[in-house]
Amino acid sequence: MYQTTIKKAVELVGIGLHKGTPVRLRLEPLESNSGIVFYRSDVDVAIALTPENVVDTKMATVIGKDGVVISTIEHMLSAVYAYGLDNLKVIVDADEVPVMDGSSASFCMLLDEAGIQELDKPKKIMRIKKEIIVQEGEKYVKLSPSPDLKYDFTIKFPHPVINKQEYVLEFTKESYKNEIARARTFGFLHEVQYLRSKGLALGGTLENAIVLDDKKILNPEGLRFPDEFVRHKILDAIGDMSLIGMNFIGNYEAMAGSHDLNHKLTVELLKNPENYEVIELVGEKTAELEKAYA
What we know:
This protein has about 290 residues and is α+β, with helices and mostly antiparallel strands. The protein contains seven helices and 19 strands.
């Protein structure tokens, strides 16, 4: 298996979740060993996708450099990661990635349009060697060694529509597209009202998020999956884990995980080289991994 990028540049325009203004997103191919690089075209600043460049994790995963930020990167990165892309330039003309419909389905369609291009250098992948856990009270996120890639997520909300949900994704690109990509972000009406009072969530509507009051869902079309909430948490986690810089093999497990815990997990993982090994996918040892990222 070789490193990949996209075959051609593609772009779309959507609304930014917090500012509520149009944002143009453009994806361009990059050469081998370039990684994923974000670029703010309105201020001419490039920001590499690394844990060190994460500047905020309260509402979304936000990267920044020299006071310039790009917010809500996780939904798009979730699709990029699921497609196994190693090298990509992500250009936006504002401080956030467009929210689209609140899922990663639009980004999957964009990547399908762009096509996948194989490059000339072997693909690198991280194999988890030791268990790493980050815990805060009952909440935790954990990585553990495994011969394949699995996401096991549990959430608990004191809300009659959500309650306790668990989902296990045995990861392949196809299982991601079928089971995860269409799951939308969600929020509670009282939170939306508070955020708007602070000048945030101005682009949030029933078109790009599931919104709940104290008892029910406000979206007239209902849910896309009965457990759409926990599926979206897996979508977020896949995007957040892309900050390690490559696809990985191992089990991810979470109980009430968050962007903040995911960020701390990537930092903890990379802190000690004994936690992982980076392997180049050449020769026979690639066979077991090809099915996931084909």
